[in-house]
Amino acid sequence: QEDWLSGRCPVVAATVAFGMGIDKPDVRAVVHWQHPSSLEAYYQEAGRAGRDGAPARCVVLFSERDVDLHEYFIAQRYPSHEEVADLLRQIPRDGVRAGDVEGLGEGLTPEQRHVALLALIDEGVIAREEDGSLRRRERKGPRRRLALSGMAARRRGDEARLDAIVAYCRSRRCHRRRLLEYFGE
Q: Which of 9, 65, 135, 154 has its CA 20 to 30 A from that of 100?
């Protein structure tokens, strides 16, 4: 990294996270091995090139198989309705201490647990306290089925962002125009 920043090394291969703190003005090219998960991510990453105002390029190596991979990641991020309901049943009436939250949701990945807990908070059936503990919230009126509409909306948003970057990569139209339209300009 130091050699690249100083100019002794002209090329660096890195993960997405590498560039987020980099403000090197003379980057001439950013090459994506596969398309990012969204146009927002693409724009952020591509923006690392040409900060000095000189010409720069951003290239995306696009493969239909990568679309399948991103779709798989989205599918894996979201637990099923039953998994969320099971997680809720694991939270006792007196709540869960912050240190015990990771033990909830056996079989869920940490990301699925996080998504499920956010969905339950959105539903108003649990609350996260300032110390990180969780407590159940009493529901007024008859017991109702969990709608999980917030979780469904987040998933639809992830799918729409993926659709937008895939359409961008497949497009033969002016890519600059597509970006400007996407961002409402």
A: 154
Q: How far apart are CA 90 and CA 95, in angstroms?
A: 10
* Residues found in the chain: 185
Beta strands per DSSP E along the chain? 29-32, 57-60, 126-128, 134-136
Q: Is this prediction's pTM over 0.90? A: no
CB atoms within 10 A of CB 22: 14
- Model pLDDT for residues 42-52, shown as the tens digit of each residue: 998 888 899 99
CA dihedral 12→18→22→25, nearest 10 degrees, is: 30
> Strand locations in 5-164, DSSP E?
29-32, 57-60, 126-128, 134-136
**Rounded CA separation 23/20 (Å):** 8
